């Protein structure tokens, strides 16, 4: 089954025999989404057309995929000259990184938006209020006027009007509406309030339409199946280009998450892309993809890198993890700790068959040395490898979906990791 979607917030739906789901594009920015569904897990292609001329740069992102998390537009440790070594062209930013820390909206506007300001004309920029590292949602501080975030500059209340002003000046290709995210342990009444507020803020954002990029409606509801479904149904009625699923990674268990995800995705339009924050571990990624999620954030990569960890789990096409060989100590079925003395004299790359810049040019011993002398180059090399490895993980998953063997891949992956490393911790 194939669908085509182009972003538009004001033009009516037009149907044709060739493309049963087609919305005409806006003149300034266009997004097309083609999806081939295999049960719930699905592969697709997100096409971003930049500029007024359809012959301008076209960015193609295969889904499911990873959105590279950034701090002020750049990955946390990778410099612009090394960014091209990462096989990805989609970056996630938080508008609060800019406006909450000294850069005014007028300044960003004069510079021509984020693409011009950052010099990233060949990248798709996704703006999401939540940053799980620096701009953490604070449900106790939210009011009917807007959500509250803890930022490096203090707690900040963001109203829809202020947020749309940020979006207007930054001109991202995709942006998520404001959401009142709540943790899993709040009351049913608080879950209902979060959904009511999120829907109102979405309506406010649509009314204040900044006429830039494609808006993704936010879906919340905490651990309540009823409220998750209600929010998804209401957002699906709105004229949005896609869906941003929030409120995950905030205390819900792995066991209750599949039902929550299914309550959401079962009522969403198949022809629109779905993005989520808060799922990072390989097991969590597989949970999300099984439910039909298309795009994931990558704050998990930052956590690993900051701790001195390198991803090393096998990228076996069948999902088999039995081939993992722990090197002495400080290892598990996912990663190795390159701070360990076991790697002080190890002259091999992180992974022999890895094609990333780090593995092609440097050894475990060198990275171990850089970590022990607190040299930032260690984090640069680790983030390059970890990002590259995770992107290859998504490639293996896409291949499995296309071949009709995703469910078997997922079960093999989970079972083969569970047996030989029973009792070990897999989180970063």
From TrEMBL:
GO terms for cellular component: cytoplasm. Coiled coil: none annotated. Residues 40-417 form the tRNA-guanine(15) transglycosylase-like domain. Non-catalytic subunit of the queuine tRNA-ribosyltransferase (TGT) that catalyzes the base-exchange of a guanine (G) residue with queuine (Q) at position 34 (anticodon wobble position) in tRNAs with GU(N) anticodons (tRNA-Asp, -Asn, -His and -Tyr), resulting in the hypermodified nucleoside queuosine (7-(((4,5-cis-dihydroxy-2-cyclopenten-1-yl)amino)methyl)-7-deazaguanosine). HAMAP family: QTRT2. One of its GO terms (biological process) is tRNA modification. This is Queuine tRNA-ribosyltransferase accessory subunit 2. Its cofactor is Zn(2+).
């Amino acid at each position: 089954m194939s669908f085509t979607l182009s972003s538009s917030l004001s033009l009516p739906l037009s149907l044709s025999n060739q493309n049963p789901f087609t919305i005409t594009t806006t003149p300034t920015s266009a997004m097309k989404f083609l999806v081939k569904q295999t049960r719930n897990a699905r592969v697709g292609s997100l096409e971003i057309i930049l500029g007024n001329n359809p012959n301008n740069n076209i960015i193609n992102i295969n889904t499911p995929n990873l959105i590279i998390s950034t701090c002020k537009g750049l990955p946390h440790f990778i410099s612009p000259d090394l960014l091209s070594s990462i096989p990805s062209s989609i970056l996630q930013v938080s508008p609060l990184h800019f406006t909450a820390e000294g850069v005014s909206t007028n300044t960003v506007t004069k510079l021509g938006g984020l693409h011009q300001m950052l010099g990233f004309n060949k990248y798709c920029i996704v703006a999401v209020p939540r940053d799980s590292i620096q701009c953490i949602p604070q449900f106790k501080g939210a009011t009917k006027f807007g959500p509250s975030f803890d930022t490096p500059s203090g707690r900040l209340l963001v109203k829809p009007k202020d947020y749309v002003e940020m979006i207007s000046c930054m001109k991202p290709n995709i942006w998520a509406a404001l959401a009142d995210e709540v943790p899993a342990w709040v009351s049913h009444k608080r879950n209902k309030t979060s959904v009511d507020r999120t829907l109102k803020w979405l309506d406010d954002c649509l009314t204040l339409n900044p006429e830039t990029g494609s808006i993704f409606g936010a879906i919340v509801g905490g651990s309540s199946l009823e409220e998750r479904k209600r929010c998804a149904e209401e957002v699906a009625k709105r004229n949005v280009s896609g869906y941003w699923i929030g409120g995950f990674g905030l205390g819900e268990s792995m066991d209750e998450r599949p039902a929550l995800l299914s309550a959401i995705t079962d009522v969403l339009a198949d022809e629109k892309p779905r993005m989520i924050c808060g799922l990072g571990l390989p097991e969590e990624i597989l949970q999300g993809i099984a439910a039909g999620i298309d795009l994931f954030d990558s704050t998990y990569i930052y956590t690993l890198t900051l701790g001195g960890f390198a991803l090393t789990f096998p990228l076996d096409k069948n999902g088999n993890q039995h081939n993992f060989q722990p090197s002495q100590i400080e290892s598990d079925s996912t990663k190795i700790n390159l701070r360990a003395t076991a790697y002080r004299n190890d002259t091999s790359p992180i992974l022999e068959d890895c094609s990333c810049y780090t593995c092609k040019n440097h050894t475990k011993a060198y990275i171990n040395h850089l970590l022990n002398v607190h040299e930032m180059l260690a984090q640069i090399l680790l983030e390059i490898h970890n990002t590259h490895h995770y992107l290859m993980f998504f490639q293996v998953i896409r291949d499995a979906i296309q071949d009709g063997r995703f469910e078997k891949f997922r079960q093999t992956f989970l079972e083969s990791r569970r047996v030989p490393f029973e009792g070990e911790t897999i989180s970063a």
